[in-house]
Design a protein that fits this description.
Low-confidence stretches: 499-512
Distance between the termini: 95 Å
Order of helices and strands: HHHHHHHHHHHHHHHHHHHHHHH
Oligomer: single chain
Number of strands: 0
Largest sheet: none
Length: 578
C-alpha cells in the first residue's frame, strides 16, 4: 500500500468518526454510535481502494484485542468477592435465561439450531461503554447501585467470553460427534484453567518486578506484549483472539500497577477501538439497512423485553426493592460489544447470513439510541408504574415479595441449618443449569441421532423420533425430579415455620395455601408437566404440532412405568410385613 493511500484512508476514518461522535455527543449519545455511523457513511457514500481493506482489518483486530484487554483490566476479583452478592445473583439468574429466551426467539424466527444459539449468545450481554457514558451524562442512580451495575456487566463479559470460546469451534462448520464435543470442551477448560492458574501465579509477580525496577514505558510494552501473546495462543488452540486478550487483561489486573497500565493503554484502546467499530459499519449498506430493519426491530424487542424481565427477576431474587430492580433492568438494555464480536465471527464462518449480521448491528444501534433517551425519564417512569400499574400485577408482586421474605427468613432461621438451606438453593440452580445443558446437547444431536436410529429401523423416522423424545424425557426426569424435591423441601420448611399464618390475613393464608399445594401435588405429575413444557422446544422433523402429540405418549409410558414400580414396591412391602 502506498503512503498516500494509507494516509488518505486513515484521515477519512478518524476525522469522519470524530465528527460523527461530536454530533452524537451533542445529542447525549455514546461515541460508539458515531464510529458505526462513520463506517456506514464511508461504505455507502465514499469509495476507498480495495487494497485499503486489509489495513482496516488489521487495525480493527488490534482494536478488538485492546478492547478485550481493557475490559479484563477492569475486573477486580477482590471486589467481586466482597461486594458482588447482588451482582452475582442477578447474573446467574439472568444469563442462562437470556440464552434460552434468545434461542427460543431464534427458533420462532426460523433460525437453525446454531444460529438460534448464536442469537442467545448475542443478546446475553450489555454494553460497558454505553452504560458508562449514560451514567456520566445522566447521573440518575446512586454510587452503590452504579457499582453493582458495573459488576453485573463484568460478570456478563466473563460469561460471554466462555460462551464465545464454546461456540467459536462450532462455527468451523462440520457437525461434531460426541467424542469431538468432549474433546472440544476438555481443550477449552484446559486452556482456561492453565492460562488463569499459570498466569495468576507468575504474570502479576513479573509485572510487579518490572514496575519496581524499570520505567513505566517498559511496563506498558511488556503488558501489551503479553496480551498479544495470549491472544496468539488462543488462536492457536482454535479460539477467538478476544478470549486470550480478555484473560490476559484479567490476569494483569491482579498486579499492583494495573491502574497505571490501564491509564496508559486507554488512549491506544480508544484509537483502535474506533477503527474496530468503523469496520463494523463498513459492512452495512443503506439498502440492506432498510430491508433488515423489521428483523432488527424484532431482535431489539426480544433483547429489551428479555433483559428487563430477567434482570428484574435476578435483582428481585437478590432481595432488591422494586425501584432498584427496575432501574437496573432498564439501564442494562443496551446490547454489548460482544454482540458485534459474536455476530461477526458467526458471519465470517457462514453460520449466519449477512442480513442477520446487519440486523444485529442495527438492533444494537437502536438500543444505544433508545437507552440514553429512556434513562432521562427513568424516575417518573418507575413512579408511574408503581402508582398506576395494573392492580393484578401489584397483587402478584406483593405475594411474591411475601414468598421471598419467607425464604430469606428461612435461610437466616436458627431452627434450620443455613448451610443446608443454601445448599438446597444452590442444588436447585445447578439442576436448572443441567436441564438447560441437557436440552442444548439434545438439540445439537437431534438430526444425526434420528438419522442413525431411523436407518436401524429401516427408515421409520416417526418411530426414531418417538424413541429420541422418550430418551430425552427420561434423561430430563432425573434433574427435574431433584429440582422439584428441593422445591418441596423448601416449601415444607416454610409451611412449618409459618403455621401460625393460617389464622392471619387473607394474603398470608393464601401464601401458605400455595406452599401446601406445591408440597402435596404429586412429584411425578410435576416432573411430567415440567418435562412436557421443556420438550416443546426440542426441534424435530415434525414441527411443534406433532411434537405436542408425541410427548403425551412419552408421558403415558413414564406414568405406566411408575405405576408398575409402585405396585411392585407395595407388593414387596406387604410380603415383608407378612
Amino acid at each position: 500500500m502506498e503512503e498516500m493511500e494509507f494516509l488518505i484512508v486513515m484521515t477519512c476514518l478518524t476525522l469522519l468518526a470524530g465528527l460523527c461522535s461530536v454530533v452524537f455527543s451533542k445529542l447525549k449519545m455514546p461515541p460508539i454510535i458515531g464510529y458505526l455511523s462513520a463506517g456506514i457513511i464511508i461504505a455507502n457514500f465514499m469509495t476507498i481502494p480495495e487494497s485499503s481493506e486489509y489495513i482496516v482489518e488489521i487495525l480493527s483486530d488490534i482494536g478488538l484485542v485492546m478492547l478485550m484487554f481493557c475490559i479484563g483490566l477492569e475486573i477486580n476479583i477482590s471486589k467481586l468477592r466482597s461486594n458482588g452478592k447482588v451482582a452475582i445473583i442477578a447474573s446467574v439468574v439472568q444469563l442462562p435465561l437470556m440464552i434460552v429466551l434468545g434461542y427460543a426467539a431464534g427458533f420462532l424466527l426460523g433460525l437453525d439450531t446454531i444460529s438460534a444459539l448464536t442469537l442467545g449468545a448475542i443478546i446475553s450481554g450489555s454494553s460497558t461503554a454505553v452504560l458508562t457514558a449514560v451514567l456520566k451524562l445522566q447521573d440518575k442512580i446512586t454510587k452503590e447501585a452504579t457499582e453493582v451495575l458495573i459488576l453485573v456487566i463484568i460478570i456478563e463479559d466473563i460469561a460471554q467470553v466462555i460462551i464465545l470460546s464454546i461456540i467459536s469451534p462450532m462455527f468451523s462448520g462440520a457437525s461434531m460427534d460426541m467424542a469431538g464435543i468432549a474433546t472440544l470442551v476438555v481443550s477449552i477448560m484446559l486452556f482456561f484453567i492453565l492460562s488463569v492458574i499459570i498466569g495468576m501465579k507468575f504474570v502479576p509477580r513479573f509485572l510487579n518486578w518490572i514496575g519496581d525496577n524499570t520505567s513505566a514505558e517498559v511496563l506498558l510494552i511488556l503488558s501489551v506484549g503479553l496480551c498479544f501473546g495470549l491472544a496468539l495462543l488462543s488462536v492457536e488452540v482454535g479460539l477467538s483472539m478476544a478470549i486470550g486478550a480478555f484473560l490476559m487483561g484479567m490476569i494483569t489486573s491482579q498486579c499492583k500497577f494495573h491502574e497505571e497500565i490501564a491509564e496508559k493503554v486507554d488512549p491506544m484502546k480508544e484509537m483502535f477501538m474506533a477503527v474496530f467499530f468503523i469496520s463494523i459499519g463498513l459492512q452495512i449498506s443503506v439498502d440492506s439497512f432498510l430491508s433488515c430493519l423489521p428483523l432488527a426491530v424484532a431482535i431489539y424487542f426480544v433483547f429489551a423485553a428479555s433483559k428487563i424481565m430477567t434482570v428484574f427477576l435476578g435483582y428481585f431474587i437478590a432481595n432488591e426493592n422494586f425501584s432498584n430492580a427496575l432501574t437496573a433492568a432498564i439501564m442494562l438494555t443496551s446490547m454489548g460489544e460482544f454482540a458485534f464480536i459474536i455476530a461477526h465471527a458467526a458471519m465470517v464462518a457462514g453460520v449466519v447470513t449477512t442480513e442477520f449480521y446487519t440486523s444485529v448491528v442495527i438492533a444494537a444501534l437502536i438500543s444505544m439510541i433508545v437507552l440514553p433517551t429512556v434513562s432521562r425519564y427513568i424516575s417518573p417512569l418507575i413512579e408511574g408504574i408503581e402508582n398506576k400499574g395494573p392492580s393484578i400485577l401489584k397483587r402478584i408482586y406483593i405475594a411474591m415479595c411475601g414468598i421471598r421474605s419467607d425464604i430469606y427468613e428461612l435461610i437466616e432461621s436458627p431452627r434450620y441449618s443455613k448451610e443446608h438451606v443454601n445448599k438446597t438453593l444452590k442444588n436447585s440452580y445447578a439442576c436448572i443449569i443441567l436441564i438447560v445443558a441437557i436440552e442444548l446437547l439434545m438439540i445439537a444431536i437431534t438430526e444425526p441421532v434420528i438419522g442413525f436410529v431411523s436407518e436401524m429401523l429401516e427408515g421409520n423416522i416417526e418411530l426414531a423420533y418417538l424413541i429420541f423424545i422418550t430418551v430425552n424425557f427420561f434423561i430430563l426426569a432425573w434433574p427435574t425430579w431433584h429440582l422439584i424435591s428441593n422445591i418441596k423441601y423448601i416449601d415444607q420448611v416454610i409451611i412449618e415455620k409459618n403455621t401460625r399464618l393460617i389464622c392471619g390475613s387473607d394474603a398470608e393464608t393464601n401464601r401458605v395455601s400455595v406452599y401446601k399445594f406445591i408440597k402435596t401435588f404429586n412429584a411425578f405429575a410435576m416432573v411430567c408437566i415440567v418435562d412436557f413444557l421443556i420438550l416443546l422446544f426440542v426441534p424435530g422433523p415434525f414441527g411443534r404440532a406433532n411434537t405436542i402429540v408425541v410427548i403425551p405418549i412419552v408421558v403415558a409410558i413414564f406414568l405406566i412405568a411408575y405405576h408398575r414400580s409402585r405396585k411392585k414396591a407395595l407388593a414387596l412391602t406387604e410380603e415383608a410385613n407378612c
